[in-house]
Predict the 3D structure of the following.
Amino acid sequence: MFNQSISGSLTKEQIDFYDEQGYIVIPHLLSDQELEPAKEAMNQKVSMIAEELLQAGLISDKLENRPFKYRLAELFANLTPDDFLKFGRSWRDRLPGYFHLMSNSKILDAVESLIGGEIFSNPVYNTRPKIPKVAAGAVPWHQDKSYWPDANSNPVITVWIPLVDANEVNGCLHIKPKTHRTKLLEWHNENHTGTGYTALNEDQLGKTKTVALPVPSGSAILFNDRCLHMSTPNESDEVRWSVDLRYQPTDQDRMPSHGAGFLARSYHFPERVATLEDWFAEKPEHEE
Ligand SMILES: O=C(O)CCC(=O)C(=O)O
C-alpha cells in the first residue's frame, strides 16, 4: 500500500529490504517500449562495429536482419576475444537513448525512495554486451567503490537493468547480501581477461551465501556501491545485454575525473535539471 511519508515509488517493505540486504530487485520496472531508445543506441553501435569488421575483412556479412539478442554474438562467432575487446568490454557512448534511460522517471522514482528527490546521475554508466565465449564478460567479485576509492560520494546506488532476460546460463548478476556495510576491501586488478577489472580474492568474500539474481528484461536491481557482486560467464548463444547506471545525492562529490554526470531530478531547483543538449555539452546542470 502507498505510504504517504515515503517519497518515490518503493514500498516501506522494499526500502527496509534494501536497507537490510544492500540490494533490491524490482521485477519488470521498465516496459519494452521504455527500453527501446537504449536498444536503439546499442543497435547503432553494433552497426558501426559490423561496418568496421567488414572493412577489416574479418566478416563477410553484417547480419543486418538478425535480432538484437543474437546479432553481436554472431558477428564475433568466428573471431577472437581480442577482436571483441578492441571495442571495449563495456561502452559509455553519449547517445540520446542512454540519456533518456538515465532520466526515466520510473528509475528516478525508485532511487528517490532510497536517497531523496535531489538526484545526480553519476558519470559512471555502462552498457555491457556480454557475448558468449569471451571471458571478459564474466565480472569477478568486487565492490563498485573500488573504481572510485577516493571519491567522497555516498551513497552511490547502482541500477542494473538487463535488456534481455538475464539468467544463470547467460551470466546474470550474483550478490552477497548484507555486505553493503563492509568497508572498502583491498582489491587487485585481475590479469587474465585483458580487462583489468578490480577483483577480490576468494578469502576476502566471507561466509555470506551468494544469491544469484536471474531477472526478466526490464527489471532493475538496485545495490549499494559497497555490496559485493559479480557475474558469471555467458554460456548461451545470445548476448546478455545490460546497462548499469548510477545515482547519488546532489550534495556529494560528482566524480568529474570519471566524466560529466548530470542533475537528473530536483524539487528544489527543477529548472536546473539537465536537458539532452546539456548532457551532450557535458554540462551537469541547465544554466538558464
Ligand atoms: O553486468 C555485469 O555483468 C556486472 C555488472 C557490475 O559488476 C556492475 O554493474 O558493477
Notes: The chain has one domain: 14-280. Helices lie at 12-21, 32-55, 68-75, 81-85, 96-102, 105-115, 276-280. The mean pLDDT is 95.
